[in-house]
Amino acid sequence: MKAFYKDFKLGILGGGQLGRMLIQACPNFDIYTSILDPSANASCQGIANEFHQGSFDDYETVYNFGKQVDLLTIEIENVNVAALYQLEKEGLAVYPQPRVIEIIQDKRKQKQFYLDNAIPTAEFVLVENREDIHRHEAFLPAFNKIGQGGYDGGGVTKLNSLVDLDKAFDAPGLLEKAVELDCEISVIAGRNASGDIAVFPIVECVFHPEHNLVDYLIAPTTLSDEIQNKANEIASDLVEKLDIVGILAVEMFITPAGEVLVNEAAPRPHNSGHQTINANVTSQYEQLLRAILNLPLGSTAINKPSAMVNLLGEEGYTGPVHYDGLNELLTIPDVHLFLYGKAETRPHRKMGHITIVDEDRNKLINKIELVKQTIKAVSQNKEESSDD
């Protein structure tokens, strides 16, 4: 593999906000970037060294793109794995590896992997369609998750009883037993090809009550050392058993009894790691570069307590985006704004995020509410709201 200088070309499948922030970490390593994304208006368009419009789900498009780069990675897992296997077979370094992506992109395979490898997770049953769900009435209440294609809060619905069956997915998926929760957390772990592992401190996630998206998160956690150690051990165990090269975001449930259960994992940068850019010694994006280049992993230590607030498109607005309250936001001390370069807003669409740092946790929590009330992603075109 070439040295990581101007002649080293990193290919990234996906040109959304995760790719955008990954590209922003690349100049420090003098890495030349090439992006493939289906949208001509993708967030990475204009900041990548090369931008190619095309489907990352099409075999020939992905294969031909991969033949032009020195190393291939992803910012979204819903990509053509068959093309990645072929590129890997021909000697291209593909990280995370195609076999890992194949497991993660199908929730059925992912949950079965947890079961087979003694990774603690909520009880589940695999289902083929709505009729199959009907046969598992005794398992309800449960969350019905579609096997493939669900992303960013989509592809999940709660079924309290068969009365809710019309909300179920009429496609292969699973039923995951609804468990009582104390909180939801995320742990991001990096692993390089030498097998070194570095785990970022736990973040506590607070979800929007309606949209199944993270509203905000906060780090460090106030959970007991015992629970933190459990969560870190599970994340380390999972990256080792997957044998992944790259980073893995592991979303977990904490039950009132202190049980730690893996919900889902993502083999790429994750929404729950954005705050690491401002708050940690090494960001999740730099860590990904270190991991896939097989460099020593960076320190994951927290410099300052932090929070991250997702900036979502406001209900009722679709069209060219305008950010109400932006000037006021930037007068708040220790606030860092990240806009994702999306020209159009729509309800619940991720338009950016705000990272807040403060040594005082109570002040940090107060600033979260202030930030949420200050900035809004709107448009001059106000209309009836619709789901993203």
In short:
This protein has helices at 17-25, 59-66, 81-89, 98-104, 107-116, 130-134, 225-242, 276-279, 284-292, 326-329, 361-374; strands at 9-13, 32-37, 50-53, 71-74, 93-94, 124-127, 142-146, 156-159, 173-177, 183-191, 197-199, 203-207, 214-219, 246-254, 260-266, 306-312, 319-324, 335-339, 344-345, 350-357, 376-379. The chain is α+β, with helices and mostly antiparallel strands and 388 residues long.
Walk me through the structure.
This protein is α+β, with helices and mostly antiparallel strands and 388 residues long. The protein folds into three domains: 9-94, 3-Layer(aba) Sandwich (Rossmann fold), CATH 3.40.50.20; 123-177, ATP-grasp fold, A domain (Dna Ligase, domain 1); 183-379, D-amino Acid Aminotransferase, Chain A, domain 1 (2-Layer Sandwich). It has helices spanning 17-25, 59-66, 81-89, 98-104, 107-116, 130-134, 225-242, 276-279, 284-292, 326-329, 361-374; strands at residues 9-13, 32-37, 50-53, 71-74, 93-94, 124-127, 142-146, 156-159, 173-177, 183-191, 197-199, 203-207, 214-219, 246-254, 260-266, 306-312, 319-324, 335-339, 344-345, 350-357, 376-379. Strands 10, 11, 12, 13, 14, 15, 16, 18 and 20 form a nine-stranded antiparallel sheet that branches. A five-stranded parallel sheet has the order 3-2-1-4-5, with helices on one face. Strands 6-9-7-8 form a four-stranded antiparallel sheet. A hairpin with a 6-residue loop joins strand 12 (203-207) and strand 13 (214-219). The radius of gyration is 21 Å and the shape is globular.
